[in-house]
Amino acid sequence: MAVQGEVVDKTAAMIAGPVAAADWLVIAPVLLPIVAGAVLLMIRHNIRWHALLALVVHAAMVGTNGLLLQRVLAEGPVSMTMGSWLPPFGISFTADALGAAFSLTASVVALVCCAYSVRDIDAAGRRYGFYPFLMLMMAGVSGAFLTGDMFNLYVWFEVFLISSFGLLILGSEKAQIDGATKYAILNLVGTTLFLIATGYLYGTFGTLNMADLATKAGQIGEAAPLMTLATLYLLAFSMKAAAFPLNFWLPASYHTPPVITGALFGGLLTKVGIYALLRSLVMIFAAERLVLAGVIGWVAVATMLIGALGALAQSDIRRIAGFLVISGVGIMLAGIALGSNGGLSGAIFYALHSMLALSALYLLGGLMRQRGGSFSLHSLSGLYGASPFLAALAFIISLAVAGLPPGSGLWPKVMLVRAALDVGAWQIAAAILLSGFLATIALGRVFILAFWRERAGDKATTAGVMSVSGCCALVVLVLAMLAMGVLPETFIRLSTTAASGLLDASAYVHAVFPVGSGS
Amino acid sequence: MEAVFAILVGLFFAAGIYLMLSRHIIRILLGVVLFGNAVNLLIFTNGRIMREVPPIIAEGLDVPATAVANPLPQALILTAIVISFSFFAFLLVLAYRAYQEIGTDDTDGMRVAEPADDGLPPMGY
Q1: What is the model's pLDDT at position A172?
Q2: pTM for the whole thing?
Q3: Does a structural domain hold residue A2?
Q4: Can you tell me the distance from the alpha carbon of A410 to that of A408, in angstroms, rounded to the nearest whole number?
Q5: pLDDT, tens digit, for every residue of A134-165?
Q6: How would you label A176-194 residue by residue, b for 16+ Cβ within 10 Å and e otherwise?
Q7: Nearest CA in chain B to A187
Q8: Count of C-beta atoms within a 10 Å radius of residue B24
Q9: Is A162 on the interface with B (CB under 8 A)?
Q10: Using alpha carbons only, what angle is made at residue A95 by residues A90 and A100, rounded to the nearest 5 degrees?
């Protein structure tokens, strides 16, 4: 009980003085969508304003994420701790090159998807809250990329998960409810595993701050059950990332909601799992990752091949895209298994590419449905004659997803294959090449059947018109992918910086605990 | 005290996982509840269990004089309880809706999203 007039010395635990204005940038990409989501819920019935407000806020998110990345690249990681508490007592938000790059790409994809949704989501969908769910999901995704606290990461996982449930069942069709049941239960089990690991983590270390953990993990010694922790995190995040054999919820659910939701999920959510794996296994449990590398490597090989083979067996474009998401997760896991700077930067570059490319693939499916009247390869035909424009977009997207030039998927795969051959991991290099070959066949067949096959009978009556906003959205994504594929130096440099920041966390730790005041 | 709780947590996990392996959605959901509560108890045990020792630091000291239970895991549990409670409410509604729409709570019969007779894509034209 402080006596009146007596000044309590708080400098040991509290930050003196207000937060620098520029540091607010770290939480702006999270704050903006949360506030917008709340506002959208309040004006739930004025659906005219929903799309406009969502577009403006997404554009603002892209802007703040861009500024944040620029600052992180110029000055190194930036950190801000909540409630004036000194870390590790307060919850820190820490943006490094990895988090800021992922957050920026995610917000670009969300902006594009939002533009696509203007014509795609009808009044009923808006009234049931498509845009509030979208904003809150983006808050969860950005929060997961920018937070510097393990338990806070769990909270952001739950935020985007519960919003994704809302998006997934929007429309309440039979297939959606069926898919959502499997998605919801398996993802809930996955995040519960994450919570178990985090409980043990606190019991072991007495801290949840990632920078603090990265420092202490190397010093704690043999007695601590670090292998158990690392394995639990691997299991929990692999489940979220849909790695084999924990991938069965993804192809069961991602094709059921409107394509726009599939595009957001396929592009963003599995990458949050990959991001969390990078953060926990590479930055915090580096020594334990080395022990698990063999397991992760074979899981990566199996995931790549199962995904590509699954894509070959499907006739619905959205299900093909779902299996290609899984195949891509395997390629990113390969980078985590290799663990070298080359492998990790390949995985990070591939994640950035995959956010754009897989979203584009889903949106392409949506436009093919608008033009050709179906998602099924059994009935789609003659689209090349009907719309050469769409055929050109489909060609570039197929090249990018399969990892062929001039698409964006080529360079990360080159980096990964080289990193794999450098350490003699021939099975990983072979699986990357083979899965790329199988994906080429799967997408080539889509192109042959849907675009080149001649239109049977008088299906011309069913042909629809593509929405202008949808075409613009897809063109933006295709241009971004071409830029990544033709001018890869910027992205290679960015992902190499991000990978070095993970392998040597001293800059990250220094941002949270400046001038050696670590606990 | 901790040993008793550790055994209890183990029993909760075993029962939860056993129920989740069932084919029926309602048993899976009960398993999910037990699983979630097992985690809450686990975190609770992680924070040391002490009876009747308030975690209050006496005046003039920087740390408690005797070992006390750590209140932070209990705050974490509160967060986790709120989240798992809302998830469970959502899952119950979803499962009931699935039962109404699909007419079964047997996961083997839930093949609407992935039909068993899907067939292969066209092999040529």
Answers
A1: 85
A2: 0.94
A3: no
A4: 6
A5: 999 999 999 999 999 999 999 999 999 999 99
A6: bbbbbbbbbbbbbbbbbbb
A7: B87
A8: 15
A9: yes
A10: 150
Q: The domain containing residue A95 runs over which residues? A: 21-516
Interface contact A162-B72, CB threshold 8 A: no
Who's near A134: CB < 8 A, 6+ residues apart? A54, A110, A114, A117, A163, A167, A264
Contact assignment for B72 to A189 by CB distance below 8 Å: no
Q: Is residue A174 part of a domain?
A: yes
Q: Tell me which chain A residue has its CA closest to the CA of residue B29.
A: A185
Residue A12 lies in a domain: no
How far is Cα A332 from Cα A429, in angstroms, rounded to an integer? 12
Q: Alpha-carbon distance A501 to A100, whole Å?
A: 12
Give the Cα separation of A297 and A384 in Å (integer): 40
Domains of chain B in sequence order: 2-52+68-107 (1.10.287.3510)
Q: Scan residues 137-156 of A and list those with Cβ closer than 8 Å to B.
A: 151, 155
Is residue A518 over pLDDT 60?
no
- A82 near A148, Cβ under 8 Å? no
d(CA A472, CA A462): 23
Q: What is the pLDDT of residue A17?
A: 73
Domain count of the fold of chain A: 1
**pLDDT higher than 90, residue A86:** no
Q: How far is B71 from chain A (nearest CA, A)?
A: 12
Residue of A178, A199, A251 with shortest CB distance to B42: A199
With respect to residue A261, please indicate whether it lies within any of the assigned structural domains: yes
Give the relative orientation of helices A317-338 and A426-446 as an angle to the nearest 10 degrees.
Answer: 160
Contacts of A168 (CB under 8 A, 6+ apart): A176, A179, A180, A183, A184, A253, A256, A257, A261, A265
Contact of A185 with chain B, judged by CB distance below 8 Å, is answered with yes
Q: Which residues of A touch B122 (CB under 8 A)?
A: 315, 377-378, 449
* Separate counts of helices (H) and strands (E) for chain B: 3, 0
Alpha-carbon gap: A254 to the closest alpha carbon of chain B (Å): 10
- Closest listed residue to residue A102, CA positions, set A479, A355, A471, A455: A355
Alpha-carbon distances of A55 from A33, A38, A116, A164, A464, rounded to whole Å: 11, 15, 10, 19, 26
